[in-house]
Amino acid sequence: MKRSVLKWPSRPEQLGALALLGVTAGGAAIAAIGFEWAQAQSQEIGVYSGRHYNTDKKLYQQFTARTGIKVKLLEAKDDALIERVRAEGRNSPADVLVLVDAARLDKAADMGLFRPTSSAALKRDVPANLRDAKGRWYGLTRRVRVAVVNPKLVNPASIRTYADLANPALKGKLCLRDRKSVYNQSLVADQMILRGDAAAAKWVKGMTANVTRPYFTSDTPLIRAIGNGQCGVGLVNTYYVARMLAGDNGAADKAVASRLKVVFPDPAHVNISGAGVVKTSRNPEAAQKLIEFLASPSGGRGYAEANNEYPLKGYGSNPILKRFGTFKADGVSAEQMGAKNKAAVQLMARNGWK
Ligand SMILES: [Fe+2]
Predict the structure, then answer these.
(1) Range(s) within the chain of domains with CATH label 3.40.190.10
(2) Following CA atoms 179, 128, 308, 109 in sequence, which dihedral angle do they give, to the nearest 10 degrees?
(3) What is the pLDDT of residue 52?
């Protein structure tokens, strides 16, 4: 069995019986999970989640309170979970697989890891462009990739679309996260779908010509660099800025983020976190119920707020997101973005995106 780096629930006793077969290697905790399948299978589901926000657990507890179905949670990085479900095959204790980014949901679906499901509730609550047409996965929260601007260096009004970031006037001022970022891959896929391959290639080439600093490996350091004036503008997911503004990363980051302006390109690229029922689930009905709960207006609001994301519809009630204002989603299908992922990575490589 393939073993992956795992983060264990902070209070496993709340989440049911977990059997740790743990060893360590390279300082990382490595463990395997065992579920007590003998007892009341109908009352328990296993959830593997690439989301890793403490507040998600509250939602699972609410679900249990409502339905009596217990949730056993395993959190790890998305790609590790995909590999794990594949390797476990029919022995997998996972009933629901939660992943971040349309490209990863699409990848898991292509690997045959999901079992198609359909319900009136899911059709009603999840907009058609944020779910798989075959019902293998459903979006649960929305995240928007935006321009973050340091107004001392770049006029926020000069950025109205993603295309504006290719303006040669931004030479030396634009900073980007690297090509390995699935968030950037999905953004490029989105622009290929919306504007065509040739226009997207020209756009990427123009942007990469503006980049003079090393590419970043995650969004938060990129936001800090913009706040500290090393960069004038960059592309990041809104929730990273919101997290800093909320003080979750400490006072210094809060001060940095408060100097910045979030600009929604018009129209804006919207990505998702989402979930599907695992093909080998022994309890697909209960698994589907959890997804329905997380997609519902009440469950979904909490799931989005846990990570300063947007719910499937509307803006939610997060006061920090309210400060960012409203955006117009470009409406591109998450499934199409996933399908374009490989082509997007190639286009990025060909046009200088490191
Ligand atoms: Fe993220």
Answers:
(1) 6-142+273-305, 143-269+317-350
(2) -50
(3) 83
Q: Which CATH architecture has domain 143-269+317-350?
A: 3-Layer(aba) Sandwich (3.40)
Question: What is the distance in A from the centroid of ligand 1 to the CA of 284?
Answer: 28
Widest Cα–Cα separation across the chain: 65
pLDDT of residue 53: 81
Distance CA 10, CA 74 (A): 11
253-262: average pLDDT:
97
Whether the CB-CB separation of 243 and 236 falls below 8 Å is answered with: no
Distance from residue 335's CA to the centre of ligand 1 (Å): 19
Distance (Å) from CA 277 to ligand 1 centroid: 22
Polymer length of the chain: 354
Is pLDDT of 11 > 70? Answer: no
**pLDDT for position 29:** 36
Burial 219-235 (b: 16+ CB within 10 A, else e): bbebbbbbbeeebbbbb
In angstroms, the CA 251 to CA 349 distance is 37
How many A from CA of 297 to the centre of ligand 1? 22
Residue 82 pLDDT exceeds 60: yes
SS (H, E, C) 212-261: CCCCECCHHHHHHHHHCCCCCEEEEEHHHHHHHHCCCCCHHHHHHHHCCE
Ligand 1 centroid to residue 101 C-alpha, Å: 9
pLDDT value at residue 78: 97
CATH class of the 6-142+273-305 domain in this structure? alpha beta
Cis peptide before 267, with omega less than 30 degrees from 0? yes
